[in-house]
């Protein structure tokens, strides 16, 4: 059945690192119950042998709690021994529980690669109490695999037990012919052999289960092509947005390059129109040519100051007119002729500069601009 969130697409792509990390945050990690059974049984077996030299002492201590002299009151002694019994059981249980806890943690670390604590796994999930979802889980492929695995495990352990008892039947049948401790020793040997065989069988089962659980976990986290594309957009950005950003960057870079190259043309300008500080536009016009004046360079702020400095160093006349400088800056382009609506105003300014450069005493022209050529310092039309 297709995942409803995958829009019918088949999950064929391996999970990304982000998907794996998100699964860990939600408490979804590969886990093998068979590996836990094996590790805890092995740990208990080793603890049994490790603590066996102390069994006699432990039995003596335990038996002392079952003896009552009645010298100080039988009832008080019973209560006292009961309290001591609970303390005895508690601490002896801790001796077994702590190593087993460490083994369980190390086993999970072996499966997932790290200790994973997720509060999301503790959150209430309504689908867990949904009867429909419960029936789907009961009759799913996973449930079938778990059932077959359980049947196989029980059959394997029963077969191992039968094998051990049939191979050791002579020893068990002759135990009654020896003394008590000899018989107990033989039974202990058979018991140890049975545990070892159980461990070997469980190790084989756990090995296959670990491989299957890793495969099943990876299969659940697989992604469709659409999910992969969506995640790529979230982490790296939409390809369309990135392409637009690249275009804007290329455009900005080209403009910056054009302005740097234009700065080299400032010394050859005929005039520089300023407002007088914030904007500067360098114009070039050759008398006798048929074309209109050309904009060599323009800038605002620091760049405007640089244009003015370069022009003054080269002896270019600087003419200050706030509205005309804004109009040329916002309506014109570097390398193009000035906008036609500004022909009259620029012609009057260039004529004034031409006469001024010849040493004539003339008054500055009264420049008038069309209404659609009037801008504020932000480029907004004043009309």
UniProtKB/TrEMBL annotation:
Ranges for region Disordered: 1-25
Q: What does the UniProt keyword field contain?
A: Cell projection, Cilium, Flagellum, Membrane, Transmembrane, Transmembrane helix
| Membrane-spanning segments | 35-62, 82-106, 147-165, 190-212
Note the superkingdom of the native organism. Bacteria
Composition bias, kind Basic and acidic residues: at what positions? 8-25
Q: Which GO terms describe its cellular component?
A: plasma membrane
One GO biological-process annotation of the entry reads: protein secretion
UniProt family annotation? Belongs to the type III secretion exporter family.
- This chain belongs to the protein called Flagellar biosynthetic protein FlhB
Q: Which organism is it from?
A: Yoonia vestfoldensis
């Amino acid at each position: 059945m297709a995942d409803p969130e995958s829009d019918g697409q088949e999950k064929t792509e391996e999970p990304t690192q982000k998907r794996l990390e998100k699964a860990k945050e939600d408490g979804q990690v590969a886990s093998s119950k068979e590996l836990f059974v094996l590790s805890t049984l092995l740990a208990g077996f080793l603890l049994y042998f490790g603590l066996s030299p102390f069994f006699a002492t432990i039995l003596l201590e335990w038996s002392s709690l079952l003896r009552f002299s009645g010298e100080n009151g039988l009832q008080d002694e019973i209560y006292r021994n009961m309290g001591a019994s609970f303390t005895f059981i508690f601490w002896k249980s801790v001796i077994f529980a702590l190593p087993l806890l460490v083994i369980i943690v190390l086993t999970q670390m072996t499966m997932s690669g790290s200790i994973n604590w997720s509060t999301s796994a503790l959150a209430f999930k309504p689908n867990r109490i949904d009867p429909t979802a419960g029936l789907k889980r009961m009759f799913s492929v996973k449930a079938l695999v778990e059932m077959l695995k359980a049947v196989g495990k029980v059959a394997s352990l029963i077969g191992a037990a039968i094998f051990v008892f049939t191979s050791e039947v002579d020893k068990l049948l002759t135990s009654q012919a020896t003394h008590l401790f000899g018989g107990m020793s033989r039974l202990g040997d058979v018991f140890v052999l049975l545990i070892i065989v159980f461990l070997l069988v469980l190790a084989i089962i756990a090995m296959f289960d670990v491989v299957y659980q890793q495969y099943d976990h990876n299969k659940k986290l697989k992604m469709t092509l659409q999910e992969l594309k969506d995640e790529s957009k979230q982490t790296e950005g939409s390809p369309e947005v990135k392409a637009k950003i690249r275009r804007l960057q290329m455009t900005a870079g080209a403009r910056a390059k054009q302005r740097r190259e234009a700065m080299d043309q400032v010394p050859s300008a005929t005039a520089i129109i300023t407002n007088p500080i914030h904007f500067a536009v360098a114009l070039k016009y050759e008398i006798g040519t048929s074309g209109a004046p050309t904009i060599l360079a323009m800038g605002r702020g620091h760049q405007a100051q640089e244009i003015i400095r370069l022009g003054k160093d080269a002896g270019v006349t600087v003419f200050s007119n706030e509205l005309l400088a804004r109009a040329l800056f916002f309506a014109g382009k570097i390398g193009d002729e000035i906008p036609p609506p500004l022909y009259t105003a620029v012609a009057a300014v260039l004529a004034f500069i031409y006469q001024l450069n010849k040493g004539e005493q003339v008054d500055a022209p009264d420049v008038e601009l069309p209404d659609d050529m009037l801008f504020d310092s932000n480029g907004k039309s004043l009309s």
